[in-house]
Design brief:
The chain is of the alpha/beta class and about 350 residues long. About 55% of the residues lie in helices and about 10% in strands. The chain has an eight-stranded mixed sheet, sandwiched between helices. Strand 7, helix 7 and strand 8 form a beta-alpha-beta unit. Helix 8 packs antiparallel against helix 9 and helix 9 runs antiparallel to helix 11.
């Protein structure tokens, strides 16, 4: 980004809550854009290491913090100055963070989130959780799209979408992010954007399982395309728009996550298939070992559990998701899951819903 562009950008003081790879990458981008950014980590010792090293050595080594980015372990140092708050914590921690915001943040301060997934306990979409905790006075936006943290941190070309029922709030966040390397679109379908961002993680595990068995490019393409059908079915049931599924947060994120090994969901599926074929290790131990080697949350595991309950409630046919769930949670062999999908009876391809 040029100096001229940075100086012309409207500068805000923004808080980014969550200092994993994704939260750090977004904080770095916002700071490079010219904003004053406070990055919060819930572990004070880790926040101190970030502050001293001026980089996230664990998740994004070599990406130095701009001068306008500071790291904190205390929310009381971050929230009073914030003109906007971006939440980038795992889905299982989302409600707790918003509950804290509801007591410490002025209601007029815009809150956005780049978290993907469902709330594990309730199977709610995250904008529903936000409505529960923040009410209707706090402006709320979800940002999502086909992105890898390392590429955003490197300043490589990226496109995302900001969705809010209040289009002016979507524009607020689009303006905060947008520059010549980072294009941010706007829309109002919060449910659709969240469904795409959550479901693609399940499909990434599915394609990882397939590639871990060396089933080939044909199988991967079939899983992606039929995964899109399942995503549309779920969106239709939960109030999302079919057009959104064809956009950045749907098809874009699905293709990215299912085809590139930067995806930790895809890597988890590949490792699970390869290790299952290699030996008789206990399924739970195998999964835990793989998760420890990845070192970050694999959201597709929790998403599969949530979507299984949603599918039962709405009587949805989501066969790929069901087989992924069976492999992860019911100890079904990957080979048996693949055979079950291939053995399904033929039907019209256009029977989406």
């Amino acid at each position: 980004m040029s100096t001229m562009q940075a100086s012309n950008a409207k500068q805000q003081t923004l808080a980014v809550l969550g200092a994993g790879a994704w939260g750090t990458a977004l904080a770095v981008h916002l700071a490079r854009k010219g904003h004053r950014v406070h990055l919060w980590d819930h572990q004070a010792a880790r926040a101190e290491r970030l502050a001293q090293a001026r980089e996230n050595q664990r998740y994004l080594p070599g990406v130095m913090f701009p001068d306008s980015l500071t790291a904190h372990g205390d929310l009381s140092e971050v929230l009073p100055q914030a003109e906007g708050v971006l939440v980038v914590v795992p889905s299982h921690a989302f409600r707790a963070v918003l509950k804290t915001l509801s007591t410490q943040l002025a209601p007029s301060v815009p809150v956005a989130w780049a978290t993907k997934g469902f709330e594990p306990e309730t199977c709610l979409l995250l904008h529903q959780v936000a409505a529960d905790e923040l009410g209707d006075t706090t402006p709320q936006t979800v940002v999502s799209g086909p992105t890898f943290a390392s590429e955003v941190a490197k300043g490589l070309p990226t496109a995302m979408v900001a969705a809010s029922s209040d289009l002016e709030m979507a524009k607020f966040w689009a303006d905060a992010f947008h520059n010549e390397q980072f294009r941010m679109y706007t829309q109002q379908d919060m449910a659709g954007v969240e469904i795409g961002g959550a479901y693609k993680n399940i499909m990434a595990i599915a394609t990882g399982l397939s590639d871990g068995l060396s089933l080939g490019a044909n199988a991967r393409a079939a899983l992606i395309s039929r995964g899109m059908v399942e995503m549309m079915r779920l969106a239709n049931a939960l109030g999302g728009h079919q057009e959104t599924m064809m956009g950045l947060s749907g098809l874009g994120d699905l293709v990215l996550t299912c085809t590139d090994d930067q995806s930790r969901n895809r890597r988890y599926g590949m490792a699970l298939a390869q290790s299952q074929a290699a030996g008789s290790e206990d399924a739970a131990a195998r999964s835990q070992r793989i998760l420890q080697s990845i070192g970050q949350v694999v959201e597709g595991i929790k998403a599969a559990e949530a979507v299984k309950h949603i599918a039962q409630r709405h009587q949805l046919e989501l066969p790929i998701m069901a087989e992924v769930w069976s492999v992860i949670h019911n100890r079904k062999s990957v080979e048996a899951a693949a055979q079950a999908l291939m053995a399904r009876s033929g039907k019209s391809e256009l029977e989406f819903f």
